[in-house]
Every structure is written in structure tokens, then in C-alpha cells.
Amino acid sequence: MRPKKYVNAKDVLPEHLIEEIQKFVQGQHVYIPQVNRKPWGTVSGMRIELDERNRAIILCYQGGLTIAQLSEQFALSEERIRAIVYENQTK
Description:
Elements: H1 9-12, H2 15-22, H3 46-62, H4 67-74, H5 78-89
Helix pairs in contact: 3-5, 4-5
């Protein structure tokens, strides 16, 4: 069973707040983002893993490996390797 994707404002908000919102939006769906939403990959640890991989790519590139060699070594396209290397150069 899938969780409900929305809640009715009348079920969770006080009437005066609904009236204020209705001054701007009526009869439409309104998305309210989470306050403490964590950036992509921080919960799973994937962001750290990718950052470490990208640092390794940059160090290898600075050490003399070519884009083609890095592409083979890290199993990424040459375009992705270039993006990682050049993104670092603009920082």
C-alpha cells in the first residue's frame, strides 16, 4: 500500500492560516518542502564516496595520468572525467 502523497490543509492547518494561503492559491496543490531536508547522498554516504572518488581522479590527473587512462581506471566516460577535472580547476 502506497502512502498518501498529500494531506488536506483542513486536516492539519488552523482555519486562519488556510484563509491566508487562499489569498495566494485556491484549489491547487501546494508543495511545502521539509525544513531539515538533507542534501542528496548524505544519508546513504554516497556523497562522501563520490567526493573521495573525484579527489582520487584529480590527484591521478595531477600526477600525470591522461583523461583516457582515468576513464579506463575509474570506469567512467572521458566526458565525465573531464567534467570532474575541469570543475576542480574552476574552484
